[in-house]
Amino acid sequence: MRLLLILFLAPALAWADEAEEIARDIYFVNHFFAVNNISYGDKQHPLQLLNWPAGGKARLVKLERHLNNRYDKGDIRARDLVIFRSGSLRSTGILVDIYKDGDRPLSFAVWLPALRKIRRHAEPDQADTWGGSVFTYGDIYLRKPSDERHELLGEVEFNDCLGSIEDKALSTPAPWCGVRGRRLLKLRSYPRRAGWWYDWRDQYLDPLSRADYRSEYFKDGRKIKVIDKAWSSMGLADPRGQYWRYWYGEDLRTGARGLAWISAEHVAWNRDVRDSLWSLATLRRLSR
User: Fold this and answer.
1) How much is the pTM?
2) 15-283, what's its fold?
3) Which is the most buried residue in 39, 40, 99, 180, by most CB within 10 A?
């Protein structure tokens, strides 16, 4: 009887192990672990973020993001630097410390140009919105594979284009249809945290690169949020070496939408950059 039970459970356990491995690969892709460093934009050619609340006025924010995955100093494994270049947050800088101890919360140092001071903040809640957008800290920084339980639902045909906000004046990207008609893996993930803002999310990802093209969030059986990411290959030996050209998000409860985008030529990785870029001194040099 015990042998029969083992034989019955073995395929299910293997399937669960594969789902966990896929979730770790998605995390690898989204944190750009295939490269030493990556930069999205610079002062002259920044990354652009369009926040469009339902019934409200769209707001455009320009920023840079520089991630160093090989910082490796003391107990800090990586550092992530964001510099805002427009709007009410202009010249605000955020430096995030990512520790070698994966269970240790991230540390945030924020440069406030009006006060000319650095304020340190504890790790925010995953559900908090980032920069007033539809994207949360969980979407961008904080959600780890261990925060959810994962279930592989097999391959499905993806018959849609990725969303976007088309605006000729801003030269936003058109909806990307390069993934339409392809066979993608579907991974369902349930948060381990009870009473969370979503009950599960479905991710549609490339079987080889593990790039997650779409995430759909559900609550009480209803789809409440969608995030699309247009990924491109870095051309590395590791197919998980991917960078995104745009993110699109929509909150189906409120109608709020958001779009972060940048031209491919203004994304750079594995540059010869001094670690001093990722420092408090860089924050202090920012000014209005």
Assistant:
1) 0.91
2) outer membrane lipoprotein receptor (LolB), chain A (2.50.20)
3) 40
